[in-house]
Amino acid sequence: MRLLVIEDEKKMAGFLKKGLVESGYSVDTAASATAAETLASENEYDLIILDVMLPDSNGMDVARGLRSDGFKGPILMLTALSGTKDKVRGLDSGADDYLTKPFSFDELLARVRALLRRHDVGTESILRFSDLEMNLVTRQVTRAQNQITLTPKEFSLLEYLLRHPDRPISRTTISEHVWDVHFDTESNVIDVYVNMLRKKIDQPFKTKILHTVVGFGYVLREE
Ligand code: CA
């Protein structure tokens, strides 16, 4: 899942990015409304975290702008204002949820998960395909009840594939949802990660589920 964090306070933006990346999300950050608009028009984000106080605009206007530009994913607004009026204004402008600063990172993560779940109808906190299971809360992955240890990037890649089973996914789509803005489209980094993932989820098992679609990308399929 790829997230955009719009926050001008460097320390807060860095803290959010670090924690979210450690949790397996790909994260881009924007320090102004203008930078956010550019990133949102160029990339596909699954969720946007939006601070209400920005140097060149405010969160309400940014949320309205994102919606009128066609962004349909969840927007989580961060606000230092705890007045009911501001929360209502935030939700009215197109945000799906808000969190008042200061907040605990665990609560932010739980809200991010809940918002992604709500927007992705039918998705539970456990994703399953064949005898493979991924628990998004405990972050445990098992295949035929065997525990599998994945790096955050491998986890994120497998999560994206598990959310779109039986559907060939192009390398471009994978890069857009699993990598961030620094992704080098000329590199073979996706193939490298897919091979590392295969060694863990396929190689030790009889049935292979992660297949290459030649000249296109990859698919999770039971053959
Ligand atoms: Ca701010």
How many helices in DSSP terms? 8
Give the class from helix and strand content and strand pairing. alpha/beta
Order of helices and strands: EHEHEHEHEHEEEEHEHHEE
CATH H-level superfamily title of the largest domain: Response regulator
Overall morphology:
elongated
Provide the helix percentage: 40-55%
What fraction of the residues are assigned to beta strands by DSSP?
A: 15-25%
N- to C-terminal separation? Answer: 27 Å
Unreliable stretches: none
The number of distinct structural domains comes to 2
Q: What is the CATH topology classification name of the largest domain?
A: Rossmann fold
The level 1 CATH classification of the largest domain is Alpha Beta
Q: Main sheet, how many strands, which sense, barrel?
A: 5 strands, parallel
User: What ions, cofactors and ligands are bound?
Assistant: calcium ion
- Return Rg in Å: 18 Å
The residue-averaged pLDDT reads: 91
CATH architecture of the largest domain: 3-Layer(aba) Sandwich
Number of strands: 12
For the largest sheet, list the strands in their spatial order.
2-1-3-4-5
